[in-house]
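Feature request, filed as a ticket because there's no other form

It would be nice if the structure record came with a short human-readable summary line next to the tokens. Right now we just get the raw output. Example of a typical job, pasted below so the devs can see what we mean:
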Amino acid sequence: MKLRTTYLGLELKSPVVVSSSTLTGSVESIKQCAAAGAGAVVLKSIFEEQILSDIKREEGYTDIYNSYFEAQEYLNTFMRGNEIDIYVKLIQEAKKVVDIPIIASVNCTSKGEWISIARELQDAGADAIELNIAIPAFDRDICARDIENEYISVLEEVKKNLNIPISVKIGDHFSNISRMAFNLSKAGAKGLVLFNRFYNPDINIEKMKVVPGNSISTREENSNTLRWISLLSSQGIPCELSASKGVYTGEDVVKQILAGAKTVQVCSTLYRNGIDYIKQINADVEAWMERHNFNDVESFRGIVNKKEDIKVVERLQYLRRNYDLH
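Raw output as currently delivered:
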């Protein structure tokens, strides 16, 4: 197949990966993803708080992190029974019925007791772990370097416990994304997923209270990911890049691979168009490859970065835009 590629050392039938979401939260939906042509799936995240709740259940542990809406809603809805056992069973059952890589996902904010549980996910058959590290920079007394060091520390602690590859999913709010990305790579991240999409708050003006904002990404959000995939790829980052957020079509997938992405993660487009839309995305990528005489994905991965200096292009685009506006 023309679309075959590798990611985190795993063989994939397609560079299209279904990202962590309710679409990957059950065996049946995972089967649908595989049947539609997904190269791999990232399971719906298990939250650090769920793991700690299981560990501390008999000690009356009730401290639940609720600094952003996704965690609070997820915990209120799904925190029933032994969450670790449920997640382990999902991995085991999924491995029995599909022949694509199963990547477990842990949403975490700190290092601690929960890290030892990552080995259980490995032992259950997970092919890799995606660490969705989300440390909010809300405290003015915590400096940026301390937050960045915590990311590295979490990765290093998890890596001590695992033999399978680890990718790290990060947000785009760092003051120096390039430095953060390279530091994570040096610390052992096999891959980086760009970017985590934090749920945005909104305000209900009638009830005068904060409410969750739009949870579905838009195609326009793809441009920031494309920028940083290009920049990091052109700088020769020594780990694999997976593009996420705002990827809707086969054209979007092609752009990200041209920029240097190893894989491209989809989610919102499947909520809008259904899981079977993966077939259309793959078909559109293959059709583009045929028109441009590419026999495999690797043939065109990162090719735009070999033509011109991406950093110069970024500056010229900025200048041109401002010139046009005037």
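Something like this underneath would help us a lot:
Residues 33 and 275 are 6 Å apart (CA to CA).
The chain is about 40% helix and 15% strand.
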